[in-house]
Amino acid sequence: MTGISTSQAKKLIESNGTNTFAKDKKSQPVKIFIGQFKDVMVMILLVATVISVLLGEIYDSITIILIVLLNAILGFIQEYRTEKTLETLKKITSPTAKVYRDGHLTTIDASQIVVSDVIEIDTGDRVPADCVILSSSGVFADESVLTGEPVPVSKSPGNISDNDNSLNKSNILYAGTIITKGHSKARVIAAGKGTQMGKISHMISEIQNDQTPLQKRLGELGKVVALICMAVCIIVFLAGIMRGEDVFTMLMTGITIAIAAIPEGLPATVTISLALAVSRMLKQKALVNKLHSVETLGCTSVICSDKTGTITENKMTVTDIFTDMREFRLNGLGYKISGSISTDASTSVNPVSFPTLNKLLKSCVLCNNASISSSSAQITRNRGNLSATGEWSVTGDPTEIALLIAAAKGNIRSENIMGEYKIVDEDPFDSQTRCMSVTVKCKNGDKICITKGAPDVILDRCSFIEINKEVRPLTPGIKTIIEDKFRMYSDDAKRVLAFSTKLCSSVETSPGGMVFLGLTAMIDPLREEAKKAIKVCHSAHIETVMITGDHKNTAVAIAKQAGILRDKKAITGSELDAMSDSMLQDTINQYSVFARVNPSHKLRLVKAYKARGCIVTMTGDGVNDAPAIKEANVGVSMGITGTDVTKQAADVVLLDDNFATLVHAVEQGRCIYTNIKKFVRYLLSCNIGEVLTMFAGIIMGYPIVLLPTQLLLVNLITDGLPAVCLSMEPLDRNEMKKAPRRSTESFFAGGLMSRIVFRGILIGICTLGSFSTVLRLTGNIDSSRTAALITLIISQLIHVFECKSEKGNIFTVSYFNNMKLIGAVLLSLIIVSMSVYFPPLQLVFGTVALSRKLLGIALAFSASIPVLNCIISLFNNNKD
Q1: Percent helix, strand and coil across the chain, each rounded to 5?
Q2: Integer angstrom CA distances of residue 600 from 143, 506, 555, 628
Q3: Which of 306, 625, 657, 719 does the annotation list as catalytic?
Q4: Catalytic status, residue 577
Q5: What are the tens digits of pLDDT across the range 798-825?
Q6: Quick one: 254 exposed, middle or buried, by C-beta within 10 A (0-12, 13-18, 19+)?
Q7: Which residue, 175, 480, 638, 787, could crosslink 621 as a Cys pair with Cβ 3.0–4.6 Å?
Q8: Where is average pLDDT lowest: 120-129, 612-621, 747-756?
Q9: What is the pLDDT of residues 566-596, one digit of tens each?
Q10: Contact 565, 556 (CB under 8 A)
Q11: Contact criterion met (CB below 8 Å) for 348 and 342
């Protein structure tokens, strides 16, 4: 009990290290930043930048550089945040500790604590290391940082030689947890990386960052674009050489056309569309930490959700009272300032009419250390119903808060009754006695002992029961009825407390002689919106599973209410320990509830789902959830109850801790991927059309079809606002009725590549047709180029509407569900009109004003493209 000496501590530090987590090799910020430029698409854009500078296209090169830097900065931020997660975790441990050294109690830096040190811990202290309790007085510890469960845990001495720091042990205090009540002397059994918190730190540091599905798909796209650029450059160069053109001229021409093939607007449009989705999600209470995780949410096939606070309210609520040998129901959930007490017949009652109920509710207030208050002056009572807007401001233990709110529903609050009673003594709750007692002095001078606690303990202390204001003997028959009620509430996963009273001179601690008042049953209620959201997930073919540190029966009861436990089973952490990794992977789909799990279990479960090819979204709030959140494809932290460690490890933070918000985020994820495919289809089709126009013109012996400034105008008009606005397409509600796409699914799955190439060919052919027709009619190269420019731009602006639907055409799409797109197209039309008919811009872009006939030819070629597309599509559909 007197601890170890300073010299012993020094030797232990030299051999075992300090009470800190293992230090990892930090990546240098510069190295992380340079690593962002290894992407194929980025490398292509960098090469294009150099060539643009050599060709004198300064504006093009500046634009591309800005795009590349933006993407590099976003990637750098994502990777750098990982190290900050571990730094925050280190700050959770106690900065100082009271330790016995050389027989004297002294305060030292917590990092100098070693195994075998004896420490003292008081209310409000953060535990500096994992310890076994040697002695204690009414100790409660908030272990939510490790377990995720908000109710403080009672701690008491057990085997003082115990050196096992496994989770959920009543005689062990864990590093990083906070003492909410009591005083304890304890011996350190694990320090630094040997603590539960240290093990979590190690698990986080071992997890590698994987690419998101979108990053993989864009990587594939980059390779495709690289091959196209090389092929175009080589073919144009060889064709020109065969025609006897100058080698250097053809090399530059080939490179210019190859650069035209690069959809330089794609990275910027992806970034902008993701950022806009982030903005929409923020309005729905979801804060996105990592940009690309928005799209990954849309791939989610399994959601691993915590129970407390996510699927439930995390607000203990008394739902039933059994007193006077009858049941009373309480309505109004959580901390809302509303609700009433009713009989079995659902008739609201005034507790004054039921003396035993009135006495029990007063006991809920008197035998209680929590407090509730309201700033609202609108609390009124109508026929026994408490009504007001807003919620109670609460302080204290969640169970005791629930009892105070239950009493308030019966119009009994501390300020109303403290004039009648004065608390003169208290025996706090203890895990050994499993009850709490107070002695109150009444106005008439009597002293009453009120006790609340576990029903079996209270019943053993009671010899009498109060029924209809009459104290009667507690007969075996009545006791059986009470025990049956207790079991019934327990089977419904409700927490049950019993109350008793007795005239006394001091706090009653000896069994026998007390008067039984009744039972209160409470539960952390299910979020109604969570139940609806889980139903949406089911229709979207997304499996929702519950992973919780709570007891199996409680987890199963909530899972049934929420619709999670349909045709599957529940399993505990100890049962998972008996399974090998391969067995877990083979059988994991048989379960949808995982109870009494620890951090390593959560990490195993996420890895098992990923091994089966699932895209996993993991929610959590405590430090215990951080490793699994970081391992998951999408990690989701709670914004209200979540720790800093969890928030930094997460990709998404739910600001309202609501499961329904997560499902809305999944909807946005599906929407964003669909929209990205739409503008990829649009940009690539347009670029192929541009390249084919230039390439075929050279092969056919025409003069240069479009000047460099005209190509720049095309990209400015078509690759800018229309593409960005296409990314703002609203969610198709049918998206949440489809199965999530496979993580291995190609970006061009479903025949997208063939549609892109086909449409690009049509655009190229019609643009060349417009050019050659006007050239044949007028012999004027400037008029021909202007006609080709109009055909190319208008055909692309028509195509942007076709891209709104994967299967529809220009005649079936909905035009007015995205007014921003219509505005962008109208603005583009104004710009192209001014470029053709406004003299100063004619000089810049080398255009001339066209007659009505020539303009009609250019527009006719543009309009023919969607018509041809529809005819060919109908032919193919009939053929199928």
Answers
A1: 50, 20, 30
A2: 16, 48, 19, 8
A3: 306
A4: no
A5: 999 988 887 777 777 888 888 999 999 9
A6: buried
A7: 638
A8: 747-756
A9: 888 999 999 999 999 999 999 999 999 999 8
A10: yes
A11: yes
